[in-house]
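I would like you to sit down with the pair of lines that follows and say whether tokens and residues agree.
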Amino acid sequence: MAEKAAVKAGEAIARMDRIPIWGLSYIFIGILGIGFLFTFYDIFDINVSFIQTALTLFHVSNPTSPQIPALLGPIVLLNLVGYIIGALILSPISDVIGRRRMLMITMIITGLGSLYNALANNYVNFLVARTITGIGVGADLAIVNTYIGEVAPINGRARYTSLVFLFSTLGATLGIWLGLFLTTPSAPFPLGLPFALGGSGFFAVNGWRVMYGIGALLALIGLLLRFSLPESPRWLISKGKLTEAERIVEVMEKKATGKLGNLPPLPNIIQPYIAERYSYLDALKTIFSSSLYIKRFGILVSMWLFGYMTVYTLAAGLTSVLASLGFAPPEAGMIAAIGVIGFILVPITTFFVGDRLERKTWTVISVVFTIIGGLLIAIAGTNIALSFLGSIILFYGFNLWVPTSYAWTAESFPTRARSTGFALCDGVGHIGGGIGIIAISSFIGSLIASGVTTALAIEVFLLIALFQVISTIIAIAIGHRSANKRLDEVSP
């Protein structure tokens, strides 16, 4: 009976692998995307709004004070500590109880953290709230990317990861532009928004609170939508729940046949690993008792560690960095807000061509744009158009490698430990985000007394990009190939 079940499980996997298009309803991509929209809204909502938070809640006297990046550093660090806790402790639970259940739990945690942020009355509570939110975000990102990797077609894992990632860019856009609208004083365009509300009245003190309240509402919407998600068939198969898995596979086949007419022949049957009882400890043993997976873990965690130093310094702190370099806060916020255009271009690019190149190749293309964008901002001076162009290129660059690397990380571990493996790499890697922003804040604070110059600005942006350069070298030099291969061949 066990042998017969293993054959049936292998057949179900092969039936999934022969489907060359997205086999589920596109509504489910939208449902996952709404959740991603919120999580990235929460990552980016602090970028512009934190200056007002520092002035009104932490009583910083000057919006260009280097004290603001110094206050921001521990907040980002603890948010990332929460992210790591969520990734390492909560995400692996989805390998035990399922992707769908954990996706609902993580959205609840994230929403509660955002609500707590809206009600924070001092620095300590603000820190705690960002930590709780980070716990939910860290777990959610790992599980969403695991889910997409398990249900997407062989030749479209980067494509559909990118499609969901498109929603994250919309969340980042919403977070930054709402921050500009609700928390900065009005200023003539392009130095700010003429209709911004943050200069007087209720929003001059509470605009940032409204931002986090909106985040809590978005989380509630995301939670309600996720109740209709089906479970990952690959996870069901790994747990021996073949009847449930086959039911979902049949739906996928029917949908694909309706669009294509006929499906390709079945590929070779690979019998999957089945373990009805499989704990977090078992998942860790799967990864760390195998030389293959230990090597992959080392490569990927190092890539994420250094890459996130650049990503989080810019994603959470660009407005504060620019303000410390002499840009007026509304202007700094506007430069960051315009830069989000580049972020939106990322999933559009990788949706169409992400699967045509190996995952690690994208890290090289990405870092080149990061360096160019940072240098353009540094040399722009009073040329606001050049600052805008530089910001667009910068956002494009430091985000371009992310969706394909999400796909790469999920592909690199077996189904029975995929969420655990992703969480370990992405979670530990996020330590780099906290280290990066604190290092840059300290660097700026130590140099700002000598006066802001173009040379200083160039030095700052090159240092920020240096972390991503190291990440790229690691990926290119020793990274493995996984594009357009069956999951059970890449990670048996």
The CA atoms of residues 29 and 164 lie 6 Å apart. The chain has a mean pLDDT of 90.
